[in-house]
Amino acid sequence: MKNLIITLLSLLVFTIASKAQVLEPVEWETSVEKISDTEYDLISIATIDSGWHLYSQNVPDGGPIPTTFVYKVNEAYELSGKTSEEEGHTVDDPVFDMVIKFFEDKAEFRQRIKVLNQELSLVEGEVEFMVCDDEKCLPPTYIDLQFNLKKNDESQGGLSLSPFDSPDDTSQILEPVKWESSVEKTSDTDYILVSKASIDKNWHLYSQIPPKDAGPIPTTFEYDLGENVELVGKTSEGKGKTVEDKVFGIEVKYFEDIAEFRQKIKVSNAEDVKTVKAEVGFMACDDKQCLTPTFIDLDYDLTKAVKVADKGTEEEEGETRGLWSIFLVAFLSGFVALLTPCVFPMIPMTVSFFIKQSQSKAKGIRNAIIYGLSIIVIYVLLGTIITAIFGADALNALATNVWFNLIFFALLVVFAISFLGAFEIVLPNSWANKADRQADRGGLIGIFFMALALAIVSFSCTGPIVGTILVEAASKGGIAPVIGMLGFSSAIALPFALFAAFPGWLNSLPKSGGWLNTVKVVLGFLELALAFKFLSQADLVLQLHLLEREVFIAIWIAIFGALSLYLLGKIKLPHDSPLEHISVGRLMLGLLTLSFTIYMIPGLWGAPLNLISAFPPPLDYSESPYGVGNSRGGGSSASHSGLPDGGHLLAPHDILAFNDYDKGLAYAKQVGKPVMIDFTGWACVNCRKMEQNVWVKPKVLSTLKNDVVLISLYVDEQIKFPEGEAPDSKLRPGKKLRNTGQKWSEMQTIKYKTNTQPYYVLMDHNEANLIKPVGYTPDADEYYDWLTNGIKNFEN
I need a surface site. Which of 568, 569, 746, 751 has the fewest CB within 10 A? Predict the structure, then answer.
């Protein structure tokens, strides 16, 4: 159990600490060796980055996740024995306190198979694995494997499964997602509209859940309902995969292979309703490129509905892991609440009361357990009431709302100021007095009201923690507030039951003192720092630029700097006890906080601050994308003043750019320069890679600034056309374009016969290509040659 807890906590800490940095220290390759006419060895080779290690297939119980191979069932072959592995290293692991085998640098795994059908050409499998270095462990990872039996080792050359291969630059219209619709009938009036997406291998389709920060375009459904049809709830979706996007620094959920979406409807007159129509908008990406947002019409034929029993959705099952994480965080928060001056002194007092007032030890233990269960019931009722008042879906919707973020900010600031000692948040004394009077009645009811009295009296300490848990749980929606209160109250109640069962343990408890107030003050500083994350979120959505990255980091430096001074005894607050010296533990915590404060200072000069990158605004949301005081290089094509109509300086490179095609072309004719069209997208991963890794090269940057006119057309731009001015779609006759992004997307598709980004076109003033357009080109020299050759053709 100890090792399991260590594993869970390490994964939790790593997930929080490195929220914007996805590490992939293992790359997998596959090959095949032919042993005989019917026998083959499937070889999986893991290349492991320096400093990391991959665990064996055989790991003792309670240890890390073992490497596991699963091969897709196929009647054309059968497995011969188990997957073998190399010798590796066997060490006595100090973290898990057990002997564990792992691999460094490279590991090879072999699985012998016997072919039963000579037509077999491909075997598919999956490997699950966990990797660690000396500081952290990554969560379990799943990788698909393919073994081509028709190629020998040399010709196959190892099929690389790294997601960072160079993309195929072939220009073509790609359709990696195919949609099918069907209908299920659960009663005479209730139906389920089923939308099934078949996704090509290596591609993924994004979830309906929009990311909190700027990210990929979510999948959306718009239903065309008649008078006799109404939607029941929201469109549900399957589990999918939730990963940390390394470019946007946020969690995104997507689907691979198959995705199913289900929408319940109620039909008041089934005889008059034969079909329901809908439109699905979606965005598909692979590891090399993203396609433009696409819209597809769907028809659901109710006359062909299949009769089924109503059942829950996969989405409901997929929420279980999120609820467990809420429970764990709330449980740990409950333990923190135990260390506050409002709760900790109550433990020995209350347990002693039950032991002394009971006729026997067994009865005392029973009463203490009932007391603990009463605490759980009280807090769970609180979570239930919150969920019932606001509704499960309303909580989730509010959590991403600007005004709700502002309310969260104000709430946490009030909590923080209370913890710092300015005032105490207390419930009316009459409530506590009434609870005390009811507690005097004795019996089960009396014990329950004793627990209620504890909750009321300790509210000044537990209230802010409870509020923070409810704020976090609200962002998850559903029954998360109930689960959060269950975890919190379980931690509060546990000591009362344990110390009642083992009263001798009371002697080992540290005595109450000033250290309890220190815990409370530290929590106050942490609450204050967290509050600014919610304010930053609201500022980002509104694009007010009031709390840009430098300001946010400066505020955190001030908060954690003050906390460091407090822990080192240089600052005293109202409720602090006289301090002659500080303890070693407090000194170590003070030094740790001071180190963290110093770590954040370079963030003012543009350092990425990977440890906290999930909290401050992104690097480009700042007073200067280069960092405070940093100089710009590469020359300048224009100053910030006197920009041409429609032009702006593209941060952080200060390239003069246009987002309007006609205005950009007119300016190019005016200054006599060729045009470079940049078909891009806000959610385009490789577009950002090109801008961050290729465009910054001095010779490329100078060319983009001085020798061409850049027109950046965002195919996922969501700016809508003015009322009545939306142009007709050329690809979907009878439909209107939704936004400017669709306009540029159709332009790219029709004129250049491709729908992938990034896509770069060099053209003259007659809109004729100067050189063959290119896509993602990570080699800066190759990209520079393409630029210069196109410019030479313009000059000639």
Answer: 751
Whether residue 13 has pLDDT greater than 60: no
H-run or E-run covering 680: strand 675-680
In this predicted model, which residue has the larger pLDDT, 451 or 607? 607
Greater confidence (325 vs 110) lies with 110
Q: What pLDDT score was predicted for residue 500?
A: 63
Residue 8: pLDDT band with limits 50, 70, 90: very low
How far is it, in rounded angstroms, from Cα 38 to Cα 189?
Answer: 57
- For the segment 136-156, the average pLDDT, to the nearest whole number, is 71
CA quadruple 481, 206, 739, 705: dihedral sign: positive
* Cα distances (angstroms) measured from residue 792 to each of 25, 180, 707, 761, 783: 43, 49, 11, 15, 14
Give the count of beta carbons closer than 10 Å to the beta carbon of residue 541: 15
E strand map for 331-474? none
Q: How far is CA 550 from CA 273, 326, 403, in A?
A: 58, 31, 23
Q: Is the pLDDT of residue 232 over 60?
A: yes
Which structure tokens are listed for 56? 């064996």
The DSSP H or E segment spanning 146 is strand 141-148
Buried b (16+ CB within 10 A) or exposed e, 351-371: bebbbeebeeeeebbbbbbbb
What region does 369 belong to: left with phi over 0, alpha with psi -120 to 50, or beta?
alpha
Contacts of 653 (CB under 8 A, 6+ apart): 634, 691, 695, 696, 701, 704, 705
Packed helices 459-476 and 514-542: angle between N→C axes, nearest 10 degrees: 30
Q: What is the pLDDT of residue 541?
A: 61
Task: Report the mean per-residue pLDDT for the chain.
Answer: 76
C-alpha triplet 306, 308, 313: angle, nearest 5°: 115
User: And the tokens for 308?
Assistant: 């089924």
Pair 685, 167: CB distance under 8 Å: no
**pTM for this prediction:** 0.42
Element (DSSP H or E) covering residue 556: helix 549-567
Query: Could you give the CA distance from residue 209 to residue 695 in angstroms, rounded to a whole number?
Result: 32
DSSP conformation letters of 647-675: EEEETTTTEEEESSHHHHHHHHHHHT--E
Q: Sheet harboring 675-680: ordered strands across? A: 647-650, 655-658, 709-714, 675-680, 759-763
CA dihedral 456, 458, 464, 466 (to 10 degrees): -70
- Identify the pLDDT of residue 15: 41
pLDDT at 354: 62
Most confident by average pLDDT, 390-399, 465-474, 771-780: 771-780
Separation between Cα atoms, residue 246 and residue 22, nearest integer Å: 5
Q: What is the pLDDT of residue 109?
A: 92
Q: pLDDT band for position 161 (50/70/90)? A: very low
CA distances from 747 to 285, 614, 737, 774 (A): 20, 36, 12, 16
Q: Which residues of 633-644 are buried (b: 16+ CB within 10 A; e: fewer)?
A: ebeebeeeeeeb
Query: At a CB cut-off of 8 Å and minimum separation 6, what does 26 contact?
Result: 46, 47, 48, 49, 52, 54, 129, 131, 141
pLDDT at 392: 44
User: What is the rounded distance in angstroms from the CA atom of residue 615 to the CA atom of residue 553?
Assistant: 9
Query: Contact 8/137 with Cβ under 8 angstroms?
Result: no
Residue 507 in contact with residue 376, Cβ under 8 Å? no
**Residue 433: pLDDT band with limits 50, 70, 90:** low
- At 390 the pLDDT is 55
- In whole angstroms, what is the distance from residue 547 CA to residue 540 CA? 8
From start to end of 35-86, where are the E strands?
39-48, 53-55, 68-71, 77-85
Handedness of CA 157, 159, 162, 163 (dihedral sign): positive
Element containing residue 177 per DSSP (H, E): strand 177-185
Cα distances (angstroms) measured from residue 567 to each of 245, 338, 582, 697, 709:
36, 20, 8, 46, 56
Which residue shows structure tokens 């506590």? 432
Q: What is the pLDDT of residue 14?
A: 43
